[in-house]
Amino acid sequence: MDVPLFVWLLTIAGILALLVFDFYSHVRTPHVPHIKESAFWSAFYVGLAILFGVGILVFGGGQAGGEYFAGWLTEKALSVDNLFVFLIIMSSFAVPKEFQQKVLLVGVAIALVARGVFIALGVTIIENFSWVFYLFGALLFWLAWSQARSGNDHGAEEGDSRLIRVLRRVIPTTDDYHGDKLTAKVDGKRLFTPMLLVMVAIGLTDVLFALDSIPAIFGLTQDAFIVFTANAFSLLGLRQLYFLIAGLLERLIYLGQGLAVILAFIGVKLVFHAMHVNELPFINGGEHIEWAPEIPIWFSLSFIALTIAVATVASLVVSKKRQERGLTPTGEPREPVEADAK
């Protein structure tokens, strides 16, 4: 899709304006957002993403529109999965709820910058080295296998505690939070607060998340504008979604497996595409492999949407049945609750 420079500039300016609006209208004054507020703004950003996709559909055609929606759905699902880790990091750092919005918004800003860099690098590499599609495909197969094995168990407790120790050793910090300030004076010395540590932890995590999300969307489209906007709109509204479904996350027990299926599917699609543009001399003599099927974007979009829907419904149904049997969503016995003293 041929996108003029002024459209790029207007799109980036619009995304930055939304981040600034988010900060001044919601985050600047610390508070815990209620369900109604979170639901409204989550729906607003989802509606905005869909509206933008309709614009691509109208001005870019069906192929471009399908690629955008497939990419946005995939990135949105991966973002929801990332919320598990954010939740654990927030708990590990004991971040007061009224300050969590600021941490998440900073995380979104860092993720946008990191993914912008990765996208620029990815486009450059793809244009010059077609064999990278094989590499991306292999990476997605490995990520799918890892995701299927771990499910929603991100093993973050040990990792986060180690991260906290390293950060505290490198960055001198206060023991307690001082509002949402990043620094505070203690005994005449200027120290950083745990607020900075948690922002660094979220930022580093966002960079790692980009390593699986960028190859995934490049498996659906190589259009830089679509890759960037699908990523951006999947991240916008992530803060509100965090507060909306925080209590629901533990019930999405099959989301990890659903994402594994999606990543493996995109991996297959990437390998087939690599065969079509093959230039490696030790594969088919460096010639394109014509028999490899091209998976149409309508099929990719349908497959991704159906997989997310099945994983979500199955998770909610099974976790509800387990809850009725007195088990946790993962099937483990619930810890007995001590009776109130009479």
From TrEMBL:
<comment type="similarity">
    <text>Belongs to the TerC family.</text>
</comment>
<dbReference type="InterPro" id="IPR022369">
    <property type="entry name" value="Integral_membrane_TerC_rswitch"/>
</dbReference>
<feature type="transmembrane region" description="Helical">
    <location>
        <begin position="129"/>
        <end position="145"/>
    </location>
</feature>
<dbReference type="InterPro" id="IPR005496">
    <property type="entry name" value="Integral_membrane_TerC"/>
</dbReference>
<keyword id="KW-0472">Membrane</keyword>
<feature type="transmembrane region" description="Helical">
    <location>
        <begin position="295"/>
        <end position="318"/>
    </location>
</feature>
<keyword id="KW-0812">Transmembrane</keyword>
<keyword id="KW-1133">Transmembrane helix</keyword>
<feature type="transmembrane region" description="Helical">
    <location>
        <begin position="195"/>
        <end position="218"/>
    </location>
</feature>
<dbReference type="Pfam" id="PF03741">
    <property type="entry name" value="TerC"/>
</dbReference>
<feature type="transmembrane region" description="Helical">
    <location>
        <begin position="79"/>
        <end position="96"/>
    </location>
</feature>
<feature type="transmembrane region" description="Helical">
    <location>
        <begin position="39"/>
        <end position="59"/>
    </location>
</feature>
<feature type="transmembrane region" description="Helical">
    <location>
        <begin position="224"/>
        <end position="245"/>
    </location>
</feature>
<feature type="transmembrane region" description="Helical">
    <location>
        <begin position="103"/>
        <end position="123"/>
    </location>
</feature>
<feature type="transmembrane region" description="Helical">
    <location>
        <begin position="6"/>
        <end position="27"/>
    </location>
</feature>
<feature type="transmembrane region" description="Helical">
    <location>
        <begin position="252"/>
        <end position="275"/>
    </location>
</feature>
<protein>
    <submittedName>
        <fullName>TerC family protein</fullName>
    </submittedName>
</protein>
